[in-house]
Design a protein that fits this description.
Belongs to the plant dirigent protein family. It is found in: Secreted, Extracellular space, Apoplast. Homodimer. The protein is mainly beta. It is 8% helix and 45% strand. The protein has 1 helix and 9 strands; from the N terminus they run H-E-E-E-E-E-E-E-E-E. Strands 1-3-4-5-6-7-8-9 form an 8-stranded antiparallel barrel.
């Protein structure tokens, strides 16, 4: 038993040394901070319900295909296609409803077996206290599933250190044009 304690003491000393010692001690290129020192207060949960308008064909086109892999033309899933978006985010399902912001980023068809998109986009808000703040969503979207869930991986402005999830539900999809209206319910933990 006496031989075990010195071994644990040595492990503790090694751990303490490699983790920078006491909290807040600098390693030269990094340091531990108290969140309050950069203005972070109590964390809160915010819910947004908004509508994403993806216009592939027609007036005010907001999604543009910029790449197509060799398999795109032969694939029912459009595997390999990449589109850049600047989609309206509105308060209601009508494009004429109040504009809350823009969804800017890209999506690509990343599945050979189903219409499964890889989505990387920022929801950039343009109204009220959220004006200038963004939410970053990155994840898989199986388009024909009733509800799809994607992670919120960060944000800026009022959404610094944000994390959470977004649920997408298609409200309207035109098979001929590919235009879509999708309801997003987003739940975000942030300071």
């Amino acid at each position: 038993m006496a031989g075990i304690l010195p071994k644990y003491a040595l492990l503790f000393i090694i751990f303490f040394y490699f983790n920078g010692g006491a909290a807040g001690k600098s390693l030269g290129f990094s340091r531990v901070l108290n969140p309050a020192t950069i203005g972070l207060k109590k964390e809160k949960l915010t819910h947004f319900r908004l509508f994403w308008h993806d216009i592939v064909i027609g007036r005010n086109q907001s999604a543009v295909k910029v790449a197509a892999g060799p398999a795109t033309n032969a694939s029912a899933t459009m595997f390999g296609a990449v589109s850049i978006i600047d989609d309206a985010l509105t308060e209601g399902p009508e494009l004429s409803s109040k504009l809350l912001g823009r969804a800017q980023g890209l999506y690509s068809s990343a599945s050979k077996s189903e219409v499964g998109l890889f989505m990387a986009m920022n929801f950039a808000f343009m109204v009220g206290k959220y004006n200038g703040s963004t939410i970053t969503i990155l994840g898989r979207n199986t388009v024909f599933s009733k509800v799809r869930e994607m992670p919120v991986i960060g944000g800026s402005g009022l959404f610094r250190f944000a994390r959470g999830y977004a649920q997408a539900r298609t409200q309207k999809f035109d098979n001929k044009s590919g235009n879509a209206i999708v309801e997003y319910n987003i739940f975000i933990l942030h300071y």
